[in-house]
Design brief:
mainly alpha
């Protein structure tokens, strides 16, 4: 009876630890996809501006203020700039030509509705 209990306890501990690691990985993948998507939308918004540099800085400043007011920490100007850069860099790294097959697929997916789960599949993170 004690052996059965110890085996069951050990199995439950392994199950819970494994589940927690899997959940953390899932959250990390979704957050990575979210940051990429935020960067994409910032770039698209900037491209609508006439004076790109000035407009881009103003957009990021205002987004930072509004998102921080709504969600708290994590949306400083430098964080939003990093999200923007992440989007731009990921595109560049996809193919030697600088064109991203991923970007085309993601744009088609997100045009109907924002589906971060689908997008997250494009950002496999290492499992530990």
């Amino acid at each position: 009876m004690i052996n059965d209990y110890e085996n069951t306890l050990t199995d439950l501990i392994k199950l819970l630890e494994s589940s927690r690691r899997a959940a953390a990985r899932s959250v990390n993948v979704i957050m990575t996809a979210t940051y990429w998507e935020i960067g994409r939308r910032i770039v698209e918004l900037e491209q609508g501006g006439e004076k790109r540099a000035e407009y881009g800085a103003a957009v990021i400043k205002r987004l930072s203020e509004d998102l921080t007011a709504r969600f708290g920490k994590g949306f400083s100007r430098s964080n939003l700039q990093q999200m923007r850069n992440f989007y731009l860099e990921w595109q560049i790294c996809q193919t030697p030509s600088g064109k991203s097959n991923l970007d085309t697929e993601i744009s088609q997916t997100l045009s109907a509705e924002s589906n971060l789960s689908t997008l997250a599949q494009e950002f496999p993170l290492p499992s530990r």
